[in-house]
Write a structure and sequence with these properties.
Elements: H1 7-20, H2 28-37, H3 59-68, H4 80-93, H5 96-108, E1 113-116, E2 132-136, E3 141-148, E4 159-165, E5 176-182, E6 188-193, E7 202-213, E8 217-218, H6 224-240, H7 251-260, H8 267-294, H9 302-325, H10 350-356, H11 367-378
Parallel strand pairs: 1-4
Antiparallel strand pairs: 2-3, 3-7, 4-5, 5-8, 6-7
Helix pairs in contact: 1-3, 2-5, 4-5, 4-6, 6-9, 7-9, 8-9, 9-10, 9-11
């Protein structure tokens, strides 16, 4: 029987990694590959897939040792969709070949991932999606046609997680299948969607006769909705439950402004800032508790509540910051049309934070959808009446 990995053993392995691959003299990518191969990428993953089958809580031991040595990280903000959404789904539903092919370059950051879920006619009602995948019996490949929208990072992504309808004769939650899509396929066209910030962080994606091998199917044919729930639950935890220090996130810049600019202070703004500071700290500690719960298993609907609170808090804080700055808060630094690789809330000006936070209540599940999830799956309230659950997708009004 194998000996369980403990904190001391993880420290020893991490120090051995640092000795054999000194961060100061080792190429960044080479160091990250070596870390993955040593099982120190995500310690709770299986051996050979970047982990050591250790408790998830012990990841902090590894991270602390590496941070003290100034070792490079994998730039998690740039590859957040891969880390937070694709990887848990690949681990749960991928074949051994799929996991061995994709998890290492995903974690190292050599391959960026995006999510092809939402459609122009199926955003909040995701199960109503119409992108079609038809099996070509002669080749064993799926031929995909359709359109996706609000796709972050599609312009830099190498791979995508995709759900498509494979049987229109079944009700909308059935007949959906989950795939890995090659974004370099000539049938994939990515177009920018310019946002209120002036940038095009989002994209729309057109799929025309895109061929996907059956080996890149995750889960059974027609079971894509269940597979997608793994992705969505992890997505909401990664958005709303990210680990941040005290005064991290959106509350940090406005707190700094308050301390450094006493001439801007008023009694009313002071009271409101204190309320939001306390709310931010409560959210941070709640996120920490949620991460501790993850040690025992897969994320549940509580992640939806965290994401819901995250959106509301960000919008309230950014609104207060603009008001605190007065006329300065009306300024906006740069309307240049560009296609960034990541979202940087704290490294930009107040105007950007105010505008970009408006998307927080849409991306990763709209506020309205998340309220339903919390009501039904956390509070146990009755479901809303639905008259389309047993109707074939092809017969639904559109």
């Amino acid at each position: 029987m194998a000996t369980a990995i403990d904190a001391d053993e993880l420290r020893s392995r991490t120090r051995r990694l640092l000795a054999e691959h000194p961060p100061a003299t080792t190429d960044r990518t080479d160091f990250l590959r070596a870390r993955f191969d040593a099982g120190l990428a995500w310690v709770h993953y299986p051996e050979g897939l970047g982990g050591l089958d250790a408790p998830r809580s012990l990841q902090a031991v590894v991270d602390a040792e590496l941070a003290a040595a100034d070792a490079p990280d994998n730039d998690p903000r740039r590859i957040g969709i891969g880390l937070g959404m694709a990887a848990p789904t690949l681990l749960a539903y991928g074949s051994d070949e799929v996991k061995e092919r994709f998890l290492r370059p995903l974690w190292v950051g050599e391959e960026v991932w995006c999510q092809l879920f939402s459609e122009p006619g199926a955003g909040s009602d995701l199960a109503a999606l119409g992108t079609r995948a038809v099996l070509d019996e002669a080749t064993g490949e799926w031929v995909v046609n359709g359109q996706k929208v609000w796709t972050s990072s599609a312009h830099v992504a190498r791979w995508a997680i995709l759900i498509a309808r494979t049987d229109p004769d079944l009700p909308k939650h059935k007949g959906i299948t989950y795939f890995i899509c090659d974004m370099s396929d000539p049938g994939v066209e990515v177009r920018p969607l310019r946002q209120i910030t002036g940038e095009a962080e989002f994209n729309e994606v057109f799929l025309t006769d895109v061929r996907i091998p059956d080996a890149h199917r995750l889960g059974e044919i027609g079971d894509g909705w269940r597979v997608a729930q793994t992705t969505l639950m992890n997505e909401r935890v990664s958005i709303g439950g990210a680990r941040i220090p005290r005064e991290g996130g959106m509350i940090g810049p406005v707190s700094t402004t308050w301390r450094e600019r006493p001439e801007l202070r008023t009694h009313d703004l002071h009271r409101r800032l204190l309320d939001l500071w306390v709310d931010s700290e409560v959210a941070r500690l709640t996120g920490e508790r949620l991460r501790q719960q993850l040690v025992a298993g897969q994320p549940g609907p509580e992640g939806s509540a965290m994401k819901l609170g995250f959106a509301r808090l960000n919008q309230a804080i950014s609104g207060l910051e603009v008001e605190l700055l007065g006329e300065e808060g009306l300024l906006y630094g740069d309307w240049t049309m560009r296609r960034p690789e990541l979202v940087d809330f704290t490294g930009r000006d107040a105007g950007y934070r105010y505008l970009r936070s408006k998307g927080n209540s849409i991306e990763g599940g709209t506020t309205e959808v998340l309220l339903n999830i919390v009501a039904e799956r956390v509070l146990g309230l009755p479901s809303e009446p639905r008259n389309d659950k047993d109707v074939a997708w092809k017969d639904l009004a559109r």
